[in-house]
DNA sequence: CCTTACATACCAACCGGTCTGTTTGCTATT
DNA sequence: AATAGCAAACAGACCGGTTGGTATGTAAGG
């Protein structure tokens, strides 16, 4: 793999796990086994530009992944439950959440850096659009679909945070169980 | 006010707004107009001990505030909607979220520091207990009340994050609107 | 031969934390 | 009541380590 992609991949993982400020450039460099020359060659504006590249890459990855899941399951409920299960499995095997979440970056950077905020916003919008589209095909009105998509996004994102503090997958499992309620519209 | 309380108050605000790593001790010191001597006198273990003190103080403040709201409103729905409105007003006037949230600390520190994780967990548990208690008095079964309390917590916490990225209060407003759905059990 | 893709050395700024004063207020003794 | 003593409550200088970032060097490829 080329150096640039490698750096984005490794940095994404580190940022997701530890947040932005907690990860030093030297740490990223070490993980990729490259030096500063490489970083500032590919990302002239340094760390923050790398973060934004990570968010864009993450957006693509999540979109592809979710769209595939939502294509393969007939109902929103089944698809979402499958997705949450994937999150849970991920959390159980790796110990840390490295899948769809990037909440640390949001809460740490959204109020500080405008470009980062926009990248995060774009990511959330994409996720909600996937829910929305599926819900509309199921007969939901535009408004109802939009509302439910938001509720799904927030409750899953919130559940991920609770899983971190509780060090258990219970919150995500409960949300998965409550999906029928959420999807009542 | 005594120095220690002042430091907790100012630091809490800064930690909520910027996260943990992003706030330097010197920044806190400047905000309080004190010096390092004062900090390491009251908090011998430094910055992290101060953070934990902030979380404990925040827990008390939130508990008192929420219990008061839930005492003054007959139904869970009314109480929660009032609470969300308060969050929205807070967000609109101050521009930043300084009320109930501390998501930045969770996602940044939960996987790094065990004492901090426990403090955050204790805070979330308190919030859920307040919901739970009220729901049980309304006739919910123990399990249903527990589930709904979780869903309320996660969706509000998630909505706060979306408000930050969108720079709007729309997500919280939508969650407030969807409360009847959430409370169907 | 000149651009791309790095490596390496270097830097000022800042980080959290420690150490050593110094002031202040209470308290026990005379 | 005066004073001695002593601990609490800071202030401020200082420290090694790390931070993100830059400037220069260099090897490879077209």
From TrEMBL, chains A, B:
Entry keyword set: DNA-binding, Transcription, Transcription regulation
UniProt DNA-binding residue ranges: 24-43
One annotated GO molecular function: DNA binding
Keyword flag Calcium: no
Matches recorded under InterPro entries: Homeodomain-like_sf, HTH_TetR, Tet_transcr_reg_TetR-rel_C_sf, YxaF_TetR_C
Residues annotated as domain HTH tetR-type: 1-61
Leader sequence segment: none
UniProt entry tagged with the keyword Nucleus: no
Pfam families to which the protein is assigned, alphabetical: TetR_C_13_2, TetR_N
SUPFAM superfamilies per UniProt: Homeodomain-like, Tetracyclin repressor-like, C-terminal domain
PANTHER family from the UniProt entry: HTH-TYPE TRANSCRIPTIONAL REGULATOR LMRA, TRANSCRIPTIONAL REGULATORY PROTEIN
Protein name per the record: Transcriptional regulator
């Amino acid at each position: 793999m080329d150096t640039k992609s490698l750096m984005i991949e490794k940095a994404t993982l580190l940022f997701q796990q530890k947040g932005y400020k907690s990860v030093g450039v030297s740490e990223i460099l070490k993980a990729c086994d490259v030096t500063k020359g490489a970083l500032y060659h590919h990302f002239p504006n340094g760390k923050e530009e790398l973060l934004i590249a990570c968010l864009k890459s993450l957006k693509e990855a999540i979109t592809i992944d979710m769209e595939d899941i939502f294509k393969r399951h007939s109902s929103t409920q089944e698809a979402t439950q499958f997705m949450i299960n994937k999150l849970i499995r991920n959390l159980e095997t790796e110990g840390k959440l490295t899948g769809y979440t990037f909440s640390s970056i949001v809460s740490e950077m959204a109020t500080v850096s405008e470009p980062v905020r926009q990248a995060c916003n774009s990511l959330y919008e994409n996720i909600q659009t996937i829910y929305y589209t599926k819900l509309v095909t199921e007969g939901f009105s535009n408004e109802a679909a939009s509302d439910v998509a938001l509720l799904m996004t927030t409750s899953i994102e919130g559940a991920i945070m609770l899983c971190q503090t509780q060090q258990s997958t219970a919150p995500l499992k409960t949300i998965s169980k409550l999906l029928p309620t959420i999807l009542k519209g």
